[in-house]
Amino acid sequence: MTGAREVVVHTGKDELARSTAARLAGRLADAQAARGTASVVLTGGRNGNGLLAALADSPEARARLDWSRLDVWWGDERFLPEGHPDRNHTQAREALLDAVPLDPARVHVMPPSDSRYAGDAEAAAEAYATELAAAAGADPTVRVPAFDVLLLGVGPDTHVASLFPEHPALRETERTVVGVHGAPKPPPTRLSLTLPAIRAAEEVWLLAAGADKADAVALALAADPGPLQAPAAAAYGRSRTLWLLDQAAAAGPPATGA
Ligand SMILES: O=C1O[C@H](COP(=O)(O)O)[C@@H](O)[C@H](O)[C@H]1O
């Protein structure tokens, strides 16, 4: 792993969302100031959508972020028809994307199931991998852009993106995007970045709030639980890995015994 994991604990989920929105706006604005552009990989789920809603109201984003120079990617998607309410893209549009002046050419949506890939999750994953590789530049050995920030919601079972404990997708070492079949959380068919693609990000930020995440957070932050049992423990960035929690998620598993 690259560097130590940093853990920041907030009082509650609203404070987590507000503070992370300010942090994210600042980090992306700094990247734009340095390079002209910035990139973020979005996560779905409760905390991911809460963060996007907070970003829509964020004074820091209003003051500093140039939405038109931001590339937006997704870490995973539920493989459902365009506009389905359970798609991460649909939820992100409602929370933020429709309200800000993004450049449509910089919004890199994972293909829906009713796209030209006609229900073929592997073909859709391959198409997204091709889009990532094109954005990564001319060097054919670099297949994923060095995202400035890659966001991951941590599920109660420690899943991140659509990489679930014990699922074969976790073993992928070559492909950057895969079709995930038989996911234990609906819908069963999904698209996901793989661990090698996640680890190409400069910074990986993992989000968890609520008591139902406490066991997962404790397991993932324990010494080297390994990717198969705890996918969240295997997600890290090249220069930074930041765990952003609320107090309930940081509380650890309930004490057992006398
Ligand atoms: O299904 C998904 O779940 C995870 C975690 O969601 P949460 O609601 O438990 O926070 C999310 O990160 C992922 O993007 C999503 O597809």
Summary tags:
alpha/beta, hydrolase, binds ligand LXAUTJHC, 258 residues, 6-phosphogluconolactonase
Q: Secondary-structure blueprint of this entry?
A:
Layout: E1 5-10, H1 13-35, E2 38-42, H2 45-56, H3 59-64, E3 70-74, E4 76-78, H4 88-95, H5 121-136, E5 149-153, E6 177-180, E7 190-193, H6 195-198, E8 203-208, H7 214-221, E9 240-246, H8 247-250
Helix pairs in contact: 1-2, 2-4
Family: Belongs to the glucosamine/galactosamine-6-phosphate isomerase family. 6-phosphogluconolactonase subfamily.
EC number: 3.1.1.31
InterPro entries: 6-phosphogluconolactonase_DevB, 6PGL, Glc/Gal-6P_isomerase, NagB/RpiA_transferase-like
Protein described:
By secondary structure, this protein is an alpha/beta fold. It has a single domain (5-250), classed as Rossmann fold (3-Layer(aba) Sandwich), CATH 3.40.50. Helices cover 31% and strands 17% of the residues. The protein is built from eight helices and nine strands. It has helices at 13-35, 45-56, 59-64, 88-95, 121-136, 195-198, 214-221, 247-250, and strands at residues 5-10, 38-42, 70-74, 76-78, 149-153, 177-180, 190-193, 203-208, 240-246. The strands form two sheets. It has a six-stranded parallel sheet. A three-stranded antiparallel sheet has the order 4-7-6. Helix 1 (13-35) packs across helix 2 (45-56) and helix 2 (45-56) packs parallel to helix 4. The protein is globular, with a radius of gyration of 17 Å. The model has no long low-confidence stretch (mean pLDDT 95).
Globally, the shape reads globular
What is the H-and-E element order? EHEHHEEHHEEEHEHEH
Helix content: 25-40%
What is the class in the CATH system?
Alpha Beta
Task: Write down the domain tally.
Answer: 1
Supply the CATH architecture. Answer: 3-Layer(aba) Sandwich
The overall pLDDT average reads 95
At the fold tier of CATH, the topology name is: Rossmann fold
What is the strand content?
A: 15-25%
Number of helices: 8
How far apart are the termini? Answer: 36 Å
- Order of strands in the sheet with most strands: 1-9-8-5-2-3
Cofactors, ions, other ligands: the ligand O=C1O[C@H](COP(=O)(O)O)[C@@H](O)[C@H](O)[C@H]1O
* Rg calc: 17 Å
Main β sheet profile: 6 strands, parallel
Q: Uncertain spans, ≥5 residues at pLDDT below 50?
A: none
Structural class: alpha/beta
Secondary structure tally: strands: 9
